[in-house]
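[Q] Does anyone have a clean structure-token version of this?
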Amino acid sequence: MALTNKDPHNAREMAAVILLGLRIERRKARGKPTKRLENRADRIREEAQTREDAKRRK
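[A] Here you go.
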């Protein structure tokens, strides 16, 4: 179930993306690479959007 009507993420996915965002910003502040975490957040967003698109097609 989507968190809001206009958002494809469920509560677990939203929490994961927010947590990853916080980790990314902390690593950037320390000058460390963030590509792996950014890819993981992108993958979560893409999967959520794909799932919601499939629901709308039914």
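[Q] Thanks! Anything notable?
[A] The chain has a mean pLDDT of 89.
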